[in-house]
Design brief:
The chain is α+β, with helices and mostly antiparallel strands. The chain is built from 2 helices and 9 strands, in the order H-H-E-E-E-E-E-E-E-E-E. A hairpin with an 8-residue loop joins strand 3 and strand 4.
Length: 160
């Protein structure tokens, strides 16, 4: 009896695996769609749009925990900080922030080269943007202000 118990213990994983292969395949389109839409990193050759995430640090911190301004840009020459749709050089330009304007820093790219920002057209840290208070959960920014990605090399953190 003891040998039969030991034999069953040794063969059980193999038997379960063999039985798992029996039967018809189950098609799960919903799961396949989730895998396609929840990719962690967009294709750098065609990045599309990557929304800025707010509330990344949790409910004990403001939705955007830092503020910044541009650096290495000349306001007298009319230089502007390019805002892109995704954290890549090849991403479409969606706007520009005037040199010296202030904006909220909400998230960072994995390689730390890009910052997800929320900004208001007048170049101020406007409370109307809704990122100066804590959130209960992380989410994409969908507020009244503009948002996008800027190169971290051209940003000076001024608060947070």
């Amino acid at each position: 009896m003891r040998r039969a118990s030991l034999l069953l213990t040794l063969l059980a994983p193999s038997l379960a695996l063999a039985l798992a292969g029996c039967g018809e395949a189950v098609k799960d389109d919903h799961f396949a769609k989730e895998l396609k839409t929840e990719r962690a990193d967009p294709d750098p050759a065609n990045p599309g749009m990557v929304p800025v995430r707010i509330g990344e640090l949790g409910a004990n911190f403001n939705a955007c925990n830092a503020a910044g301004t541009s650096r290495h840009l000349d306001p007298a020459a009319g230089e502007r900080l390019q805002v892109r749709a995704a954290p890549f050089d090849v991403a479409a330009e969606t706007g520009a922030i005037p040199a010296g304007a202030r904006f909220f820093i909400c998230s960072r790219s994995h390689d730390q080269r890009w910052l997800g920002v929320v900004y208001e057209g007048a170049g101020t840290l406007a409370p109307i943007c809704g990122v100066s208070r804590p959130l209960t959960a992380k989410r994409n920014y969908e507020g009244p202000c503009l948002s996008g990605w800027v190169s971290a090399a051209f940003v000076k953190q001024i608060a947070g």
